[in-house]
Amino acid sequence: MRLERRRFVQLLGAAALAGAQPGPRYALVIKNGEVFDPSRGFRAKADVAVTAGRIAAIEPEIPAEQALETIEAKGLYVAPGLVDLHTHCYHSATGLSVEADPIAARSGVTTWADAGSFAHDQVAGFRRFIVEPAQARIFGYVYLYPSSRNPDIDPIDYARRQMRATGQAVLHNRDILLGVKVQIGSNMNGRYSYDLLKVARELCDEYKVPLMTHISFAPPETEQVMELMRPGDIVTHCYNGHTLSITDPNGKLKPGVAEARARGVIFDVGHGLGSFNFAAARRALDAGFPPDTISTDLYNLNVNGPVYDMPTTMSKFLYLGMSFEEVLRRSTWIPARVINRLEGMGTLAPGAPADIALLELEEGEFRLVDSQRNAVTARQRIVSRVTIVRGRRLRAT
Length: 397
What we know:
By secondary structure, this protein is an alpha/beta fold. Helix content is about 30%, strand content about 25%.
């Protein structure tokens, strides 16, 4: 990291020296947009210059002739690249995952986290065939254990026998792996769910790595899940509207939920095909419980609806009454801090990685649909116009 930043400073110094002579000073300049960086509370009409894959300058006026390439951003917000903390982009035998780059190009998402599409025996493939070829930045949570279709194998015993390999996989691949993912709910792992959560807790405690927990249908009960969550862990599908939820039908937070957040547990949206409900989200927001992070749980059964992409998911929270700044912060800076693998991710501060989304806030009438196909009409929606990753414009192919 220090060598990378040192090299950037050297290149920036060279660019400054070259600025005294004819010729471009920057690789890219984004002109006439409204720069909006929630990480610093910065919002102003300004131009943004990019050099060597990093933010070189943010100034009221940067002449277009100082750049090799210019992007016109009048009427657009120039924001940090969106960070989607819950996706499925590892291509396995299930065929459920999506390819990151084409969707990133149209959605402003510069950083993806695959939430448990692969197990420890597939990490090498995740690195070689998903992370390395992608233009977008991709990280992942490894699933608790590889799949086993042998009915004679006890699932709990099987998961325990995979603990060491799973924990070691995370430790040996910390540059791309963020932790362990487990699915908890009677519809996912049946009567074994609670015991599998205990195995996951034991694993993450032993190897000191974060746990991402999917919640859906009880049993176990919400309070039992919350008791096993630690600071830095993630509860995803927090607005699912199912029986393993964070509020009761009267809108009151269930036992253990507020306490979990108070000790540092992160609550993530994870929209998905069945895990986001407008009424459930409204109950939680009315109870003073906004999400920490907004994410899509994108895969091929929901990419053509009801999820579509990150801006559509973000737009649903505008409809629910959150401000654009609140939504943007939960889609950039906060999930970037959760990932915590690259200094400056989620911000547009000079010297930060040049991962940028050019967004438009459209006015009109827009139909938005939750996972249960409840439809609403929104007056605003967020649309991505340009995605820039590592200082380069990402184009759909």
